[in-house]
Task: structure prediction
Amino acid sequence: MPELLRVLELSGCIVTLDAMGCQTDIAEQIIDREAEYVLALKENQGRLYEDVQRLFVDLEDSQYRAYPFD
Result:
């Protein structure tokens, strides 16, 4: 995966990856290439999974006004 990311023109792109690509160094490489990323989050990530789930519930309950975003 890191070699593939090195050879692609990523600037301004959104990179999506499955669980195999969800590693800190890969996310950093994408950011360094001036791109954005969407990574999979699975239940085996414990507290992080629960926190993200709670975030989406809060957003929906507040009609998407609970947290600022753009």
